[in-house]
């Protein structure tokens, strides 16, 4: 199998996956640009901007807000609760991450490729194949909240006076 055949195979797989979205199908008809090429081109430009730190803070936060906001709204309309839990967990982690980021601007300035790493972390949290938000919650946030609960629980027991 030649490299061209492999490339065409992967493009057809991407195209098949993107065909699930009516908006992309309509856009493809209007522009006459195959949706797989358009999406991969936009992803390439987005990645280049993040990598070379061109609007990187804005773009990583846009990715971290726009896609999850859309998917959160879709999750509210589904009957199950698994996707609701995923997105509630995501928003807690994303908020905590942005809070810590705002508190440590000096570290952000000194860390090369910070926004590249942040974007990859956001993708890890978002992607359904990784379910990263659930993993981070189970491994980091849940133990922290349990530790806070146990340390703030009253340790003295009330004694009953003898009668």
Description:
With 163 residues, the protein is mostly helical. It is 77% helix and 0% strand. The chain has 8 helices and no strands. The mean pLDDT is 90.
Q: Any chance you could write out the topology, listing elements then pairs?
A:
Layout: H1 3-18, H2 22-31, H3 35-51, H4 56-76, H5 82-103, H6 105-110, H7 114-126, H8 132-152
Keywords:
163 residues; mainly alpha; 8 helices
Q: What's the order of the H and E elements?
A: HHHHHHHH
Q: Classify the beta-strand content into a percent band.
A: under 5%
Mean pLDDT: 90
Share of residues in helices: over 70%
Give a short account of the largest sheet: none
Helical region count? 8
What does the radius of gyration come to? 22 Å
pLDDT below 50 for ≥5 consecutive residues: which ranges? none
> What structural class should be given to the helix and strand makeup?
mainly alpha
Distance between the termini: 90 Å
Morphology call: extended
Number of strands: 0
Task: Write a concise synopsis of the structure shown.
The protein has 163 residues and is an all-alpha fold. It has eight helices and no strands.
